[in-house]
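Project standup — Tuesday

K.O.: blocked on the structure for the chain from last sprint. Re-posting the sequence here as requested.
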Amino acid sequence: MKALVLSSSPRRDGNSAQLAQAVAEGLREAGHDADFVFAADILNGFLRDCRTCRNALGECTIDDRFETTFLQSYLPAEGFVAATPIYWYGVSAQLKAFFDRMFCNVAASSPRSARVVTQMQGKRVGLVLSSEETFPTVTAGPVHQVQEFARYTASTFVGVVHGVGNARADVPKDPSRPLERARQFGREFFERHATDYRIDTPRAGRVWG
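H.V.: unblocked you, prediction finished:
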């Protein structure tokens, strides 16, 4: 199986970047193909008005590596793990831009829209977070956004790994051992039990058999 792990930390040694690396290592240990990408390396701009931004072929003209990463790493992957520090109780601007820029290829005005919409569905999606604060709802905003993204794309939201630290070297010191949990999350990513029941969902009387 293939997964894209995207770190939107502004620092390569930042807390969420360390957690993302651990997830990628766990995926590879389990025998999966994991592409690891820093958002800062592929994104140079935010979403614009596609009606004025496309070239004659209907393609995006923002000069960066988003399009290549989206088409060659994200779409073919069965799994996607987004890693972000929590900024003002939400995701980083880099991660938001990654989601926003997908619109260029999803919109009906894109020549590849139909194929992209099909390939965006049915993925397994994970979230990795770092924060300074420990109170339980500090993760609520990012979790809700990614959960809704997963539901909108008919994907499975597999779970969340959260580490706490102030300085960038703090996460390895978190007594809840988030780096170990992140590596285990990667190892289990494609087999991990995940449910999102509706009232009419057929289900067994026992979760674990």
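K.O.: great, moving the ticket to review. The beta strands are 2-7, 33-38, 79-85, 124-131, 156-164. The chain has nine helices and five strands.
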